[in-house]
Amino acid sequence: MSVIADLYAAQPFWIWLAVGVLLLAVEAMFSTEWLLWPAVSAGVVAVMTAAGLRLGLPGEVAVFAVLTVIATLLSRRLIQKANPSGPDINDRDSRLIGQKARVVQAFEGGRGRVFVSGAEWPAQMEDPAPDLGQDVVVTAVDGSLLTVRGAG
Fold first, then answer.
1. What's the whole-model pTM score?
2. For residue 85, what are the CA distances in angstroms to 45, 90, 92?
């Protein structure tokens, strides 16, 4: 432990850099998005100490803590602006709702097949059955079964 204390006394840059790299490595392993900003904050404190601005351990820890809180709060606001609430782009099923589909197999007994988003899907129709090749609109998704209505 005295080796770390001696290294900190001589070059606090390396300690803060190691803390930042360690936090970044853990973040990369677990992808939590919670350790990214503390890692960046540790890097900022490392650069600050390398530039000769030494506040002592309590001052540097305080700067680290304040930077972490500010960066985390600002990033949450930025993420909310960048990802407004709406359908998840990775949820293919919910993205189908509202899209136009083309009937590729005639509806019999309220069931048929439609082509939408690059694939054929089984579908059920509540309205009068459309003809083959007509457009319909997806109104709901239940597993792999789409509910559609006339596009008109």
1. 0.52
2. 35, 13, 16
Please say whether the beta carbons of 101 and 136 come within 8 A: yes
User: What is the band of 89 on the pLDDT scale with cuts at 50, 70, 90?
Assistant: low
Task: Quote the CA–CA distance of 30 and 142 in Å, as a whole number.
Answer: 32
pLDDT band for 9, please (50, 70, 90 cuts): confident
Query: 3-class DSSP state for residue 107?
Result: strand
Are 149 and 112 in contact by the 8 Å Cβ rule? The answer is no
> Are residues 141 and 96 in contact, defined by beta-carbon separation less than 8 angstroms?
yes
Position of tokens 């109104």?
139
In the prediction, which pLDDT does 21 show?
95
**Which distant-in-sequence residues (6+ apart) come within 8 Å of 92 by Cβ?**
117
